[in-house]
Amino acid sequence: MPGTARHDREMAIQAKRNLSKTTDPVERLRLKCLARGSAGIKGLGKVFQIMDDDNSRTLDFKEFVKGLNDYAMMIDKEEAQEIFRIFDKDGSGTIDFDEFLVTLRPPMSNARKEIIMQAFRKLDKTGDGVITIEDLRGVYNAKHHPKYQNGDWTEDQVFRAFLDNFDSPYDKDGKVTTEEFMNYYAGVSASIDTDVYFIIMMKNAWKL
Predict the structure, then answer these.
(1) CB 3.0 to 4.6 Å from 153: which of 102, 134, 139, 147, for a disulfide?
(2) In sequence order, which residues have a C-beta less than 8 Å from that of residue 178 and are 6 or more positions away?
(3) Cα–Cα distance, 34 to 28 (Å, whole number)
(4) Model confidence over 142-156: pLDDT tens digits?
């Protein structure tokens, strides 16, 4: 597993530090998410998904504010309105939350996106665009895991814990989509300055 715990800590500290320096509302929300670690943005996405009862993939302002509150994002109403206005490009009173999450993700170069997709494709053995325990059987050796070695966990529990890294904190369904994988690594990517280092880390982590 890439050195995510260390990166997460570094990123959270960096995000909190930058938060005091920026006034841009979208950047502030991004940093607040990143201060929770790599899965922060994805977690917010899951909260919105749960709230989207009619599967419209859109949110009105009330839902947007409720989602932020449910995720314990302390944002005052004026700032929330400003963020909402930025994303409600056509002034329809609703925002597309896929677009919202993509914009919220820290920007990544194409080189980084490509190496992330290479890792995803390697893990997605069945090629159906979702990584599951079945996919992992051939690619990830659970037998090296300390909890497997001391008898605490079965092989499937090791796989599940592995998938939970990428899955959202609020909705761990044991399936990881391209979007979730990309969101997770956008978080990791935010803590790594150079493309070269990011690519080396990914190649080493996934033996690409």
Answers:
(1) 147
(2) 117, 120, 129
(3) 10
(4) 888 888 888 999 988
